[in-house]
Design goal:
The complex is a heterotrimer of chains A (about 220), B (about 550) and C (about 140). Chain A has about 220 residues and is mostly helical. Chain A is built from six helices and no strands. A two-stranded antiparallel ribbon of chain C has the order 1-2. Classes of the chains: A mainly alpha (about 220), B mainly alpha (about 550), C mainly alpha (about 140).
Chain lengths: ~220, ~550, ~140
């Protein structure tokens, strides 16, 4: 496969923090640290999945009927967009590792655009539809349908909290990717140093992971 | 090299020329520092302030309870606010960060022979997150204090007036400080041990901090989502915890206690680490059963995750789940007992010196044992049914949290005071304060076991006449405690101005932090230490035979 | 990614995975997405959930192993960390669901879910709602 090209001119060479022995320790420490953080995110989102499991077990017909009001086409589109952005993020990191900085910037930009598209689909199309129908948490629930199942607002409460928290994570990811683009423009990333890319990549793949579970649980399976 | 020296009797004339305190000057050098020692110091000041605040609420609570009608004369709602705030401040603002953020931040890298933690800037960020959470908590107290109890049980917390959302979001923010500190410590221990320091050559404080960090990382996120969901309940009416909207309040308790039970181990396990360090130094012996003590911290961390339902025996949880939780709860006593036995064995035939840190440790051994043993009737379903929500529970957890962790923390503060400040405090006053605290603590809380067994419920602002004697006695104990803490504050502050200069190793301890100057340099060690032995090696120690004939 | 010792201690020197690994993972993820959407249109009852979860786990595994690099990381510990997180999530879920399932084991009336319906209120809601249109249409008690 492609060899590391020579490091281009204009790249700002990296110096390791004073408390680390060498760059390899610094890199592996950063990765370990971030995997530990992702472990905490697993437990945080996981708590929501426990709540989901609990209520789904408690009132399966509610989930069965209520999920039909969600748009499978939009959900699938969002899934494809997010998986695509995961791919382009991984490709951006790969490009930095082989010193193809221009390619890296292109992939980062596509990732950012895909993330924005995800949010637009969610906030611009899906959620307004819900506000219009009144399929909302209890305080605003005004939906005329679903009158013969138990507490349908619980489904929508969980839906909004879980996809909302996920959406907040997407927004944070967009911020991080923007920061990477800014740093990348300054010539900070190359084969010798790409740790922020790696860490943001791990974060972004995790965001994708959560959606991989949210999508079938809310959209596909009643 | 991890060798102890004989305690130095030669007092230096002055502090070392350069140390972490004077290396750079100006408020910005502190506000933007990445030195773990400075960050530890700032945490120390913050958590001691929190302790003062939480303690004030405690004094007010005990004042109210001097007479059956309420000596303080506050309404029941205000009393509810007082004990809620006492709990919230003590748990979230003081106990959870206490030893890890102050002593841990300061000494973990030094005990490992490292220059700093793995992520120094993240460390500073953790501190600012703590301050932000604390500020929000103060705001919440002022804007309409919460009266739900520190447990925020639903459905009352959903409908309660008072700034529940601000208080819970404060705990949410503080949780991130806790998580990031734990993350930092684990990576530090994996990646930054000095050359030659294998895992089993680490002192026992790092082992305890590792176990604590594991708990912080696994449990705190669940608290985060619990409190976030509670906020969503109030704001959006999500309804999953509110029976009026079709939800289940017992589910809230599952969520809450899944964090809060491991949280008590976050609070207790660092104390175990400090106790190990002090016992080793003041008996001049390697801790007996070092590997068992090290691993038992991890065992407590793991087993502690399986037992949360023992807080919910009478909540409406199923009987079978109650039985499972009760059964599992007994297991957590085993690694804890392993520690107590090993510490006791270390004391046996050690060259024990009863300096002030050691007095706190001895008090810890007695008090934590009482606390642990009284946890067993609470773990047993059949007896807990009668004692749940009585003062027996209050006494139990104060014995482990205060008699245990706070005493360990104060002992550690004294032990490491010369290292952190380069000053020695007045040892006579310190011993006096230790005795005052021991007496005050036991007068306050041993009494409460009897109150509880006789049926006095907790969280009650007034009570039946028959309980007054015991309540008044307990309140007197709280005043004795206050005197003790004030005394400590006085002589510690005094030592900063007028205390004798401390040598590098006044106790003759063996761990790495004592092999360099007091206070330490910013980079900790002038040269990277190379470790060739275990952490507790005393060259003048009499070799103890491996087996004893009866 | 392979690691070679770097001559410069300030820089790392890692080889990325072959390009076909990235592309292959991406295509597999797309394929599995379409599989799960396709199957969802058939109604197999509870099997739908099981199949959907198995597909989701397969997709998640691809992301974790290849995109996030756990398979080729020469440091094994991050994998332990991630699996530990999942394990403790299971610890949380298990007894909580066990509690729910056994609520009526001793006394059949315990843990019975009481469905509330009240005129003028949405199903499952038994208190006046502070916000929203329904608040206005709720009859006073």
């Amino acid at each position: 496969m492609s060899q590391s090209a020579g490091i281009p001119a204009g790249i700002k060479r990296h110096t390791v923090g004073h408390h680390f022995d060498n760059a390899e320790t610094e890199f592996s420490a950063a990765k370990l640290g971030f995997w530990i953080f992702l472990c905490t995110e697993v437990l945080m989102f996981g708590g929501l999945f426990v709540a989901y499991t609990y209520f789904r077990t408690l009132m399966p017909e509610t989930f069965e009927e209520a999920h039909k009001t969600l748009s499978i086409p939009f959900g699938t589109l969002n899934t494809v967009v997010l998986i695509g952005s995961s791919f382009t993020m991984a490709m951006a990191i790969r490009s930095a590792m082989v010193n193809k900085q221009k390619q890296m910037m292109v992939f980062l930009t596509i990732t950012l655009v895909a993330a924005a598209a995800f949010m637009v689909i969610k906030l611009g199309f899906e959620w307004p539809h819900k506000f219009h129908d009144g399929t909302l948490p209890a305080y605003w629930y005004t939906y005329e349908g679903l009158r013969d199942v138990t507490a349908p607002h619980l489904f929508y409460g969980l839906y909004f909290v879980m996809t909302g928290l996920h959406g907040v994570h997407v927004l944070i990811g967009m911020g991080l990717i923007t920061w990477l683009i800014v740093l990348g423009k300054k010539g900070r990333f190359y084969s010798g140093y790409y740790t922020p890319l790696e860490i943001t990549g791990l974060y972004w793949h995790f965001v994708d992971l959560v959606w991989i579970f949210l999508f079938p649980l809310f959209y596909l399976v009643g | 090299m991890s060798t102890a020296s004989v305690p130095s009797s030669v007092a230096p004339q002055s502090l070392p020329k350069t140390h972490y305190w004077n290396a750079t000057k100006g408020w910005k050098s502190w506000a933007f520092t990445v030195d773990h020692k400075r960050i530890g110091m700032m945490y120390l000041i913050s958590i001691l302030t929190a302790f003062l605040l939480g303690g004030t609420f405690a004094i007010l609570v005990r004042l109210q309870l001097v007479t059956p009608g309420g000596a303080l004369g506050v309404s029941h709602k205000v009393y509810n606010q007082l004990f809620t705030l006492h709990g919230v401040v003590m748990v979230f603002l003081f106990l959870v960060p206490s030893i890890p953020a102050s002593l841990g931040n300061f000494f973990l890298p030094m005990q490992l022979g490292a220059k700093d933690v793995a992520f120094p800037k993240l460390n500073l960020f953790s501190f600012y997150i703590y301050l932000a959470g604390a500020a929000l908590a103060i705001y919440s107290m002022v804007a309409g204090a919460v009266d739900t109890g520190w447990t925020f049980y639903t459905p009352y917390s959903i409908t309660a007036s008072g700034s529940v959302i601000a208080m819970t979001m404060s705990a949410f923010i503080l949780g991130f400080s806790s998580i990031l500190t734990g993350l930092n410590f684990i990576v530090t221990m994996h990646k930054m041990r000095a050359p030659g320091m294998t895992w089993f050559r680490m002192p026992l404080l790092p082992w305890a901090l590792y176990a604590t960090s594991v708990i912080q990382l696994l449990a705190t996120p669940v608290l985060a989502i619990t409190l976030l969901l509670l906020a969503m309940e109030k704001l959006l009416g999500v309804g999953i915890f509110d029976p009026a909207l079709g939800g289940d309040p017992v589910l809230y308790q599952h969520f809450f206690w899944f964090y809060s039970h491991p949280a008590v181990y976050i609070m207790a396990v660092p104390g175990f680490g400090v106790v190990s360090e002090i016992i080793a130094t003041f008996t001049r012996r390697a801790v007996f059963g070092y590997r068992f003590v090290a691993i038992s911290s991890l065992a407590i961390a793991i087993i502690g995750f399986f037992v949360w339902g023992h807080h919910m025996f009478v909540s409406g949880q199923s009987e079978f789940a109650g039985m499972v939780f009760s059964f599992l709860s007994f297991f957590v006593a085993i690694p804890t007992a392993v520690k107590i036995f090993n510490w006791t064995a270390t004391l046996y035939k050690g060259s024990t010196r009863l300096d002030s840190p050691m007095l706190y440790v001895l008090a810890f051994l007695i008090q934590f044992t009482i606390g642990g043993l009284t946890g067993l009737p609470l773990a047993a379903l059949a007896t807990d049914v009668h004692m749940h929500d009585t003062y027996y529970v209050v006494a139990h957890f104060h014995y482990v949290m205060m008699g245990g962790t706070v005493f360990a923390f104060i002992g550690g503060l004294h032990y490491w005071w010369p290292k952190m400040t380069g000053r020695l405090y007045n040892e006579k006053l310190a011993r006096l304060a230790a005795v005052i605290l021991f007496v005050g603590f036991n007068v306050t809380f041993f009494t409460q076991f009897f109150l509880g067994l006789r049926g006095m419920p907790r969280r009650y602002a007034s009570y039946l006449d028959q309980y007054q004697g015991l309540h008044a006695f307990s309140s007197i104990g709280s005043w004795i405690l206050a005197v003790g803490f004030v005394l400590i504050a006085v002589y510690l502050v005094q030592s900063l101005r007028k205390g004798a200069i401390s040598p590098a190793n006044p106790w003759g301890a063996s761990t790495l932090e004592w092999q360099t100057q007091s206070p330490p340099l910013t980079e900790n060690f002038p040269d990277t230490p190379h470790v060739t032995t275990g952490p507790y090696v005393y060259p003048d120690e009499e070799t103890v035979p491996a087996r004893r004939v009866a | 990614m392979a690691h070679e010792s770097s001559s410069n201690p300030n820089e790392v020197n890692h080889q990325p995975l072959p390009l076909k690994v990235y592309i292959g993972t991406f295509l597999a993820l797309l394929f599995l997405t379409f599989v799960t959407v396709f199957i969802a249109q058939f109604h197999f009852g509870e099997w739908n959930l099981l199949v959907a979860m198995m597909v989701a786990i397969a997709k998640a595994s691809l992301v974790v192993l290849y995109f996030m690099g756990l398979k080729h990381d020469h440091d094994r510990f991050p994998a332990v960390v991630f699996l530990t997180g999942l394990f403790f999530l299971g610890i949380f879920m298990g007894p909580t669901m066990y509690d729910y399932f056994t609520r009526d084991s001793v006394d059949a009336t315990r843990g019975t879910y009481v469905e509330v319906t009240r005129d003028g209120y949405p199903p499952g809601v038994s208190v006046p709602l502070p916000k929203g249109e329904n608040a206005a249409t709720q009859k006073a008690d």
